[in-house]
Write a structure and sequence with these properties.
The chain is mainly β. The protein has 2 helices and 12 strands. The chain has a 6-stranded antiparallel beta barrel. A 6-stranded antiparallel β-barrel has the order 7-8-9-12-11-10.
């Protein structure tokens, strides 16, 4: 059974502490509109924000990444589009897990200590994808503080890919591990996130 009007979709968005359940209001092509619960009234959903969704498909739980298209606060309606895997994602050595996380970072090896803002779109054991309005260059190393649900993940990553989307930049980064701590923290976070997202669909 495919996603349809009336289906329950569990969502993770960085502006909310917990995941929340929504109901599909309508589907128009690749545009999915969901009705949000009252707990989301004070949340901030911006166009382009990454989000993670989970629902039941063919009697199995699935987790998918997506992007916010539109938010109508007074109607409690959120429109989003699911991600479509590209050729690069199929060729990666390590599986990327969709996330919706706030982060701040500094550029390593620079004189200043300016802090920048970013949104983390996906993460793996050895890499991550982020969105930022600031322009940087391939080879730059960034020192991140990524705000997990109940913890902070601090790591250093090097820019290996850059895409200019006109107004913001998409960066693919390779994580520089200095031991098992960050590696284990990523794995534990991903496992707990997946359990929270699909728990109700796995019974």
């Amino acid at each position: 059974m495919e996603l349809a009007e009336g289906s329950v979709v569990t969502i993770r968005h960085y502006s909310m502490i917990n995941v929340f359940d929504s109901i599909v209001d309508k589907i128009e092509g690749d545009r999915i509109v969901v009705k949000l619960p009252k707990e989301c009234q004070k949340a901030t959903f911006l166009e382009g924000d990454p989000l993670v969704t989970a629902y039941e498909l063919d009697e199995k739980p699935v987790i998918k990444g997506g992007r916010v298209l539109e938010y109508k606060r007074y109607e409690s309606l959120l429109a989003y589009r699911e991600d479509v895997p590209d050729e690069g994602s199929r060729l990666r050595s390590y599986e990327r897990h969709p996330v919706s996380l706030y982060a701040d970072y500094r550029v390593a090896d620079t004189m200043g200590h300016r802090k920048y803002f970013a949104l983390v779109k996906d993460i793996s054991d050895y890499g991550l994808m982020v969105y930022s309005k600031e322009e940087h260059f391939k080879g730059h190393r960034l020192n991140f503080d990524i705000y997990l649900t109940r913890d902070i993940l601090s790591l250093t990553a090097e820019i290996v890919r850059k895409v200019d989307h006109g107004g913001y930049y998409e960066y693919g980064l390779k994580i520089r591990h200095n031991g098992p701590i960050v590696f284990n923290q990523i794995r534990n976070f991903v496992r707990k996130e997946q359990e929270e997202l699909i728990g109700k669909y796995s019974k």
